[in-house]
Amino acid sequence: MNETDAPETALRIYEVGYHITPDTKEEELEKVVGTLRAEIEKANGSFIAEGAPSLMKLAYPVYLREGEKSVEYDRGYFGWIKFEAPIAIAQTIEAFLKHNKSFFRYIVFQTVREDTRAKMKAPQLREVKRTDVIKQIPKRIEETSAPVSEEELEKALSDITSE
Question: Is residue 117 part of a domain?
C-alpha cells in the first residue's frame, strides 16, 4: 500500500467462505454463487481463486429462524472465493450475505495472496509382495462346559463374597 493511497481505495486480499442451504437444487448453485460474484465485481473486486460449492455434512446441526419456525441444517453446500478489493468491500459483502437467504452461514476475512490451504497426503500403504504370506488370525475356540452342580456353584459364590 502506498502512503498516497486513500484508505478507501487501498486494496486488500479477502476470502469469503459460505454454506448454501441444502434444499438448493444443484442446477441453481451456479446462479446463487453468481450473485455473490456479481456483488464482488460491483465493488471493483478482482478474483484470485475459488472453490466450487460441494455438499458436505456439518460437524453439528445449525438451527435458524425462518419466519415463525425454526429450521435445522445438518448439511450444506460449502464453497469459497478469494479476491482482491478495496477495504470497504468486507462490510458490503457481509451485508449482502446476511440478507440473502440462500447463504445460511458465512465468514469474510482478510488473508494473503499465497495458497495457504493444507495439502492432503495420501496415506502410506505397506507393500505386500506376492510371495509374502499374510498371517491368518487364529480361529476362535468354542468353550464347552460341563454341568455344574448347585453345591459347587454355592461354594464358588461364597468364596467370592467372603474375600
Answer: no
